[in-house]
Design goal:
The protein has 386 residues and is α/β, with parallel strands linked by helices. It is 45% helix and 13% strand. It is built from 12 helices and 12 strands. The chain has helices at 2-50, 54-61, 106-114, 119-126, 142-159, 174-188, 206-219, 270-282, 290-300, 321-324, 337-346, 355-370; strands spanning 74-76, 95-100, 130-138, 162-168, 194-199, 202-204, 227-229, 231-232, 260-261, 265-269, 306-307, 329-331. The longest helix has 49 residues, at 2-50. Pathway: Protein modification; protein glycosylation.
């Protein structure tokens, strides 16, 4: 009996020790576990089982919570950007392209002007009219603000493609920047067939994008209600205070965001741009994550995002000619835009000349590059078979 008691006692001690260790690990890792597992389970349950976002209608209709978007004074503006050369008639603009930039990012803007954002190249080589505008606030640092503002004035005098309002250019003002874009387009370029918003570290394969938009206009004349990009469904708010995407419960108490596209780059049709403009007039704009706010506006207006496998999320597309055939956007290009542009235009998006073996080779390459076991958040594995 004495030996049995000792054995039981030792087993209990081992169990208690293991339990204590597990609890310690959970205590230390709970915030990360909640961030990556629990919050996603709650969010997906809300999105796919309940799928009700009636609170958005409450937010947009309740006078007690509506915060109309603040209008900031324009420091730099080009209201005639979308007019024809005579300055009187409106030009037939296929794509109005907004690039979100920061005052100090001159090199990024210059790289875009010389590559995929080059209006003259698009007109001469692709035969369509694209208007490029860089959107920004004022530099956050007080000491250097005056010097940078003078540099911006000189830059705009040269290129005439900046629009700037008098708000601080910070992450928490991204929603302000989004509202600025849709208000500008509604006031000065409402005739544009499509509108695109993109970051200044993104690469856009403009020939592929133009072909895609032209195909839409042919297959769906007067294309309406288009919102296309890299879609996030059932994404939960980040509750970890150490993240720049942290959103407190008092700002957004629900477990799931409406569906939205990654803010790195997406395209909407002209009528959707108008709908988003009207939504910003009545929807609470205090949520500073711009792509989520875009999802809220779209949900209120009955617009739903469409997934395109070659619009990237936060990831960078692999470098390979077989990828250039189809890519639309790739994120995370702050220094290599020119080399990527040269490679893209050297490999035109036409696989008809490759033949069966060439196409089979490219499919195999895309499978190896895109169908990897770990999460990349660039193009999905299904893109390999497109």
């Amino acid at each position: 009996m004495f030996m049995n008691f000792r054995r039981i006692h030792k087993r209990q001690c081992v169990h208690l020790l293991i339990t204590a260790m597990v609890l310690c690990v959970l205590t230390v890792c709970w915030e990360e576990l909640d961030l990556h597992v629990v919050s996603h389970m709650r969010s997906y349950s809300y999105r796919y089982l309940i799928n009700r976002y009636d609170f958005l209608n409450i937010i947009s209709s309740s006078g007690s919570v509506v915060s109309r978007s603040v209008t900031y004074p324009c420091l730099i503006n080009h209201p005639s950007k979308c007019r024809a050369e005579n300055g009187k008639d409106w030009d037939d603009v296929l794509l109005l392209l907004f690039v979100k930039s920061s005052p100090e990012n001159f090199k990024r803007r210059q790289a875009i002007r010389e590559t995929w954002g080059n209006e003259s190249f698009v007109w001469s080589e692709l035969g369509v009219s694209v208007r490029l505008l860089f959107v920004m606030g004022v530099y956050s640092g007080v000491a250097q603000r005056f010097r940078l503002q003078q540099a911006l004035q000189q830059e705009d005098k040269t290129y005439e493609d900046l629009i700037q309002q008098d708000f601080i250019n910070t992450f928490h003002n991204l929603t302000t920047k989004l509202i600025m874009q849709f208000h500008w387009s509604y006031m000065y370029c409402s005739q544009a067939r499509f509108l695109m918003t993109a970051d200044d570290d993104i690469f856009v394969h403009m020939p592929n994008l133009v072909r895609y938009l032209q195909h839409l206009l042919v297959s769906q004349p007067g294309t309406k209600n288009l919102w296309v990009g890299h879609v996030h469904k059932g994404a939960p708010p980040v509750r970890w205070k150490g993240s720049k995407y942290f959103v407190p419960y008092d700002l957004y108490p629900w477990p799931s965001y409406p569906d939205y596209t990654a803010g790195a780059g997406y395209v909407v049709s002209g009528n959707v741009a108008a709908k988003i403009y009207h939504a910003t007039l009545v929807l609470n704009s205090s949520l500073y994550i711009d792509d989520v706010f875009m999802g809220m506006c779209a949900k209120v207006m009955g617009v739903f995002p469409m997934q395109h496998v070659y619009f990237s999320g936060e990831g960078k597309a692999p470098y390979h000619p077989c990828i250039y055939d189809h890519m639309i956007t790739s994120h995370g290009h702050s220094t290599d835009v020119r080399s990527l542009w040269r490679a893209a235009i050297d490999f035109p998006a036409s696989n008809s000349s490759r033949g069966f073996l060439g196409n089979l080779y490219c499919t195999a390459i895309r499978v190896m590059l895109l169908c990897r076991p770990y999460y990349q958040n660039t193009y999905s594995c299904t893109a390999a078979f497109t």
